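seq as requested:
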Amino acid sequence: MFAIFACLAALIAGPEAWFQDAKLLYSDDFAHGLSRWRVELEKPGRVEAKDGILMLDVPAGCTVWFRPELKGPVRIEYEAVMIQRGGANDRVSDLNCFWMATNVRRRGGRFAEYNDLRAYYVGQGGNWNKTTRFRRYIGDKEARPLLPEHDLSSPDVLLQPNESRKVELVAFGGHIQYINNGRVIFDVHDPQPYTRGRFGFRTTYSHVELRHFRVYRIERTPRE
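struct tokens:
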């Protein structure tokens, strides 16, 4: 198991000004379908991109991969709303994501099938909106290491129904961050970082709307 240390979980009031956006690499406002995305479903569900929204309305596991490979340092951002309107899948749970993922072969959407990825992963509001967890997937079919400080359950890091939230994912060498509504929830220093790979939205048994997907090249903020 690779060591991951110096995690500041849910303790920082906002993103540090240690990096800045240098170049917009990719954007998708979800007006022209799913040509840049690959959908993997455990059971039939609705996944569609139109009218500015990527909508996932699914009864079981679902991963939607962005096709281009990303090379760090990058910042990924998007807006997400967990829908609760009385629909069959309106559970408000599992606003999840993979980033810098390798070994991204086609899978069937069942969560256990992704164990052998090498990737960073956050499951926000998992387990019926009871946990928010960070994992560093190590490419093992069984092991998915979870450090105690990466297993959170306080209400302020869980999900709220019908509330728009901005998610930001940072991969800058060994500095990895998960930021939600401007708050750094996970700040991880990885001595053997994943510096290239793919991004994927992930959820299960839920209804989520995603907007304004962007990927930026980032650089360190100049110091006076």
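The helical segments are 126-129.
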